[in-house]
Amino acid sequence: MSRHVSRSAWGARAPRSRTSTTWAARSGFTVHYSAGPPTQTPRQIQNFHMDGQGWADVGYNFLVDRQGNVYEGRGWHTVGAHASPYNTSHIGVCFIGRDGDATPAAKAAIRGLYDEANRRAGKTLSRSWHGGLSGNSTSCPGADLRSWVRAGMPVPGSGGDASQTSPTSSAPAFPGPILIQPPVRHTETCRRWQQRMRERGWRITVDGWYGPASARVCRQFQTEKGFSVDGRVGPQTWAGAWTAPVT
User: Fold this and answer.
1) Cα 132 vs. chain centroid, distance in angstroms?
2) Which residues face 63 on adjacent strands?
3) What single string gives the DSSP state of each residue in 67-88?
4) From CA 62, how far away is CA 76, in angstroms rounded?
5) What are phi and psi of 78, to 5 degrees?
6) Strand pairing class (126-129; 28-33)
7) Which of 27, 121, 122, 148 is deepest in the core (most CB within 10 A)?
8) From the centroid of its chain, how far is CA 46?
9) The pTM is what?
10) Phi, then psi, of 233 in degrees rounded to 5
11) Per-residue pLDDT reduced to its tens digit, 15-42
12) pLDDT digits (tens, 9 = 90+) for 131-158
């Protein structure tokens, strides 16, 4: 069951500074993803933002995990640091995970935050995703959440979330051959798989060569999804890159 987790409950550090805004200044709601493993904690993300980015606090107003738990970030009335120059006008909500990791529970929680924001604002805020904001050239929040926001952020189970109810319908057929090394080979299958993994947030070079770096990402991905870990991209790992169910 999802729950709302306060800053003190997740062990948030005190912000270095804080700038408040008003509902009158709020006009939008923006969805992000962390582009990291779903096992990340809000504190780890906050540490990266404060120590690595030099920000005053975690950048988002709220964060949501795969179970649909909502973590208070900067909250409703504090200006975030998630999408310049929209931090005052837009509430930023981050899903903790990569492209394809968002569960129905996570989407329902994000939609719940959007509805609550509209209630508090007394108006309908625009729905957006990070890369859809002018001047923000990024793949965030990945293809899955981007499509979901474009579709109107439907509540899972209401008829608008087929990607979760039909986990094999959107994966392209495995074209072969199985990707394995050594020897290092160059194939179109490898290039397509690398591109998809990069879209999901993995750091991987898209060059069509299935070498040690690609095999390492493959093993990490297989481990995360609970697949047999062999460093080979066969039919299961191929399909999982598009539609792997959350374990």
Assistant:
1) 14
2) 71, 94
3) T--EEESS-TTB--SSSTT-TT
4) 8
5) -105, 135
6) parallel
7) 148
8) 16
9) 0.66
10) -95, 100
11) 999 999 999 999 999 999 999 999 999 9
12) 999 988 899 999 999 999 988 888 765 4
